[in-house]
Amino acid sequence: MAMRERDSLEPYESSDPGYDWDYEPEDHSRNMPNILWGRVAVLGAVVLLAFLFGRMTAAGDGVPEERLTAARADARDARAEVSGLQTQVQDLEDQLAAQPADTGGDTAGDTEGGGDTEGDEETDPLAGGTEYTIKPGDTLNQIAEKEYGNASLADYIATANDIVDPTAISPGDTIVIPVEPE
Fold this sequence. Notes:
The protein is mainly α and 182 residues long. It has a domain at 96-177: Roll (Membrane-bound Lytic Murein Transglycosylase D, Chain A). The protein has helices spanning 2-7, 32-57, 65-105, 107-118, 140-148, 154-160; strands spanning 130-133, 174-177. The protein has a two-stranded antiparallel ribbon. Helix 5 packs across helix 6 (154-160). The chain is rod-shaped, with a radius of gyration of 52 Å.
């Protein structure tokens, strides 16, 4: 009989909540979203304040209209000046390119007045002269030596052909070798 009583016994239940199997944790899941959304709200407020502070401390709405208009006018004037200078450069390059060709053909007209100032018996030192095409390596000194036998007459050739810089002659240019002075 003792056994039967034993089977009918109820399991032991402790009234002390300190046991692990009796502990029911509190439901904190409801509080977590409130903490997360609070942080997001604070971060959003900080970003908004930083944006507003930046806008308030900015120097107006940018460049004043007067300064912008003046800068545009200056840029327009500078472009016009650059265009004018480019035109001048192109004109000078054209003159430089045409100079050797002009010195061979127009010198007869240019030296008529020059012939009068020299007081030579001949009014045109190029009259009766011979045309000479400059070859690579030629200098006025070499040409004078070859034509007259005297290199010091290179200045005479340069003057007769209106050549300002004797080193500026190029192969292919045509000059006139004037009649040898007396």
